[in-house]
Q: What sequence folds into this?
């Protein structure tokens, strides 16, 4: 299992647009093969900073999604709203036996 975390910082005036994009896109992302869940989090002290947290069965499943036309379209609309460049991490559990969904 792979955990993907993406940190995004938005211009304050673009936050409502981003939240709409996320809410309408999330069901389609979760429908991609290998995607277990997608969640959105916001920094408590910096409300313009958001994180997506997603779980994937494998790196290949994540890459299949990232190579899709759907991803390119959604990411293009999202990236236009950024105040600064996004950061992303792909992580594996050190102790997978302790993971719960």
A:
């Amino acid at each position: 299992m792979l955990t993907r975390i993406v940190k995004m910082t938005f211009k304050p005036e673009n936050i409502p647009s981003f939240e709409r994009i996320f809410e309408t896109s999330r069901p389609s992302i979760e429908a991609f093969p290998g995607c277990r869940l997608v969640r959105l989090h916001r920094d408590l002290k910096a409300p313009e900073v958001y994180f997506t947290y997603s779980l994937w069965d494998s790196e290949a499943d994540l890459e299949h999604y990232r190579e899709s036309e759907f991803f390119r379209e959604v990411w293009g609309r999202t990236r236009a709203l950024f105040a600064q460049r996004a950061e992303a991490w792909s992580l594996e559990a050190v102790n997978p036996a302790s993971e719960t969904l």
Notes: The domain at 2-92 is CATH 3.30.70.100 (Alpha-Beta Plaits). The mean pLDDT is 95. The CA atoms of residues 5 and 89 lie 5 Å apart.
